[in-house]
């Protein structure tokens, strides 16, 4: 049961300059195995969809734990970033305290492999295998970089907001920690109509979160799981449990709005795929994801 004290704490957190930084604020604990890392973290209520913690947020928190332990054990690899994360969801954590158990599988000059298990109340609930490497930067510009979207840089007139109390905001609490708008043109379900299984949206982190380049990269990874399930436009509403998700970090986002575009290759009878890309305010591709998920029951 949520108390008034809980709500007051949530409102205070949501109004801070850098609420997502709290997801990545970790306390080191003694590990069970020599050579492994173990961290305590907290994922607050605002990073939930419905009653459960948002999947992309758990990937981002796990990436922060993997990055910190790799730098602790291998300080010469401190410039590496989590280029990809392959995630299996064993269960659905509740908001609150979590533990990250970290194991380094390989250390190389170009590539390092790090596994992270998110544990809550003694149960392993989320497992992610990260591949670390070096992000492209100004010294290595893209050889091929087409226009990734015609979505305007900022929310257009008529965009659907996620403000608390709105139809979307009552479900997607993540918007209490950053600005979020859904593109109406690609969301016919809003008008009780059907359309293609595709969605687009805008996200803008708080200034303090954007000001920290590392936190901004974790937000980009989190954003790659932010669009609603694409079968919503086909009349399928409700929880769509993810079977497996792979997230790619492609670059450090520039300050400003992030644009998220979700599409599908096929929506089957019981399972569907979803590809999401994240484009920053300069038009650069900064993150991607691909996931398989279970189809919810159609709306009746």
From TrEMBL:
Residues 167-294 form the Acyl-CoA thioesterase-like C-terminal domain. Coiled coil: none annotated. Residues 44-133 form the Acyl-CoA thioesterase-like N-terminal HotDog domain. This is Thioesterase family protein.
